[in-house]
Hints:
Blueprint: H1 2-18, H2 23-45, H3 55-83, H4 85-91, H5 95-107, H6 113-129, H7 139-161, H8 164-167, H9 172-194, H10 199-202, H11 204-207, H12 212-236, H13 239-246, H14 249-260, H15 267-285
Amino acid sequence: MGAAVVWSVSVILMRVSGLKVPALPLTFFKIWVAVLCLLVALAWEGSGWLPDLAGGDYLRLVLSGVLGITLADTMIAAALNRLGASLQALADCAYSPTMALVGFAMFGEVLGPWELIGGALVVSGVFVGATRTVEIKEPRDLWVGILLAAGAHVIMAVGILMVRDVYREISIIWVTTFRFVVAGVVMFLGVALWKREALGKLFLGFRRRDTWGSMIPMAVLGPFLATLLWVGGFKYSTVGRAAIFNQLSTVFIIVLAYFCLRERLTRRKTVGVVLALLGSLLVATH
Length: 286
């Protein structure tokens, strides 16, 4: 629940920051601010800097960081820029069914009839609520944004659950730090090797001091604090229970978007949210 609350505030700040800073430099900025906070937390915790893990475990952690942070976080920022905060939150209702599907694919956790019904409700909720609003500049941005958000959740679920056995045995602060460092380094190398002319733009978030008022709190609350709470939920609870508490962020984001960003809360959007949340409840509680 703590992850849901903190993440919701971070999303609102990300929406504000994204109006001035594109998705890639925004993600790069928040990764390295989070790394700084995580290194301080790791030093305070007093655990070792290099745990005794097998080579295969380190390889999975590297892949987890690239998938779950470098790729998925950039996709979320890009979706948020296209959809606005409240429609992004509606698309985020794909999170719980995604966790159930990935759990089935990776760990053989069987999907029952309630999970299937819940998944259908989530999909119907997204289609009902997915109407173009003033936050969306171009018609195609609606479905591109929804596909980006939904795809990000699939990738994020795979990224975090593929190392579930690792973070259940060692410090979640160390695991989170390692994943973020890998994600930041891979993003830098990727831009440097394949799009060198864009390398200067990658550091735009660090140069735009006028955006720090929203970007620094966003990075501290989201990538740092919310990620620790999120991973901790999976460490100390089951995937389904953790997912349903995480899904509360949908409600928080829509309420905050209405009051803080003045985004419209239409009847169609409200019906879509209710359907999607009901589907998420069915998936996570059965």
